[in-house]
Amino acid sequence: MKPGDFLAPSQEVACALIGAMLVVDGVGGRIVETEAYDRLDPASHSFSGPTPRNQAMFGPPGRAYVYRSYGIHWCLNFVCGEEGHGAGVLIRALEPLQGLDVMRERRGVEDVRLLCSGPGRLGQALGITPDLNGKRLDRFPFQVVSTARPGPVVKGPRIGISKAKEVHWRFGLQGSAFLSRRFA
DNA sequence: CGAACGATTAGCT
DNA sequence: GCTAATCGTTCGA
Question: What is the value of pTM for the model shown?
Fold first, then answer.
């Protein structure tokens, strides 16, 4: 995908990304779960304006925003919308297709369903680190390739947030065995 | 400067 | 289902 493909509002990009291929340095698979966030969204890191942590969200679209979650996990987002709008898409789960051995080694588990089913697990399996923050998604080590969607998209409330629970900006590939959680 | 709180996960009941 | 782990970021005094 090209940077211009990320110009749309985050909820549109989040939906469009379901089924796309995401590979980081040869390791990755098919995206099966995403969540959208934007500047006017109380649950978003960008809600209170630019800070040292979230500056990548206010930069050019088509780049990575990497943040530390609960002091433990590294999570990957795609910056969306027009530059400065503070919108992004959290990549929550994917179906592992490339580099399975590397993923198993990084994760320390064998079960393919536990490799990338959740934003923290996905970050660990793909080797996401803070030096990728702000990096272009159309350059090494990233590969993001849009493909024909293998099935219908379902949506529902986002996970793990306390605000704006009524906003249904979580998207998933219906019936996928690699979702972090079932959709209601 | 102190305190509260996570866009989570793993492990135990 | 419930909770501990774990620490950087953010906000209030």
Answer: 0.97
